Amino acid sequence: KLFQAITRYEDYPKFVTGCNAIHVERKAAGHARAKYEMTIMKDLTYTLDHKEDLAAGRIDWTMVSSDTLKKNQGYWELKSAGPGKTTVKYAIEIEFNIPVPGFILNKLVKGSLPAMFRSFEKQARTL
């Protein structure tokens, strides 16, 4: 269910804070290109290519383009931890085109990421 919540990119605006819109293009099973319109301190857009491997429990992404970011890549890795439980590993590497003060990055890491994880967990429970 968590894998499904993560790979239904078009649903993000319903439950991910700061996500205004997502336009998804799927050309083949296990691959998706999504253009994200976000508000994270300011409005920004970026397009990511996603590789989805349900059998491995892994979703990888790389950035195609952005108006604000130099880099956005990472992955989700999901492993069963027993009935109704999942161990999650999440990695992200982001570089901005402009200097970003440390206090803003700290707010993102300490506030936004934990809130995002909770929203995905909640969304998975509704599926």
Features:
3 helices; globular; 6-stranded antiparallel β-sheet; 127 residues; 6 strands; 50% strand; alpha+beta
Any chance you could write out the topology, listing elements then pairs?
Layout: H1 2-7, H2 12-15, E1 19-28, E2 31-40, E3 42-53, E4 58-66, E5 69-80, E6 86-96, H3 102-126
Antiparallel strand pairs: 1-2, 2-3, 3-4, 4-5, 5-6
Q: Given the C-alpha coordinates, what overall shape results?
A: globular
**What portion of the residues fall into strands of 2 or more residues?**
over 45%
Structural class, from helix and strand content? alpha+beta
Low-confidence stretches: none
The total beta strand count reads 6
Give a quick account of the main beta sheet: strands, pairing sense, barrel closure.
6 strands, antiparallel
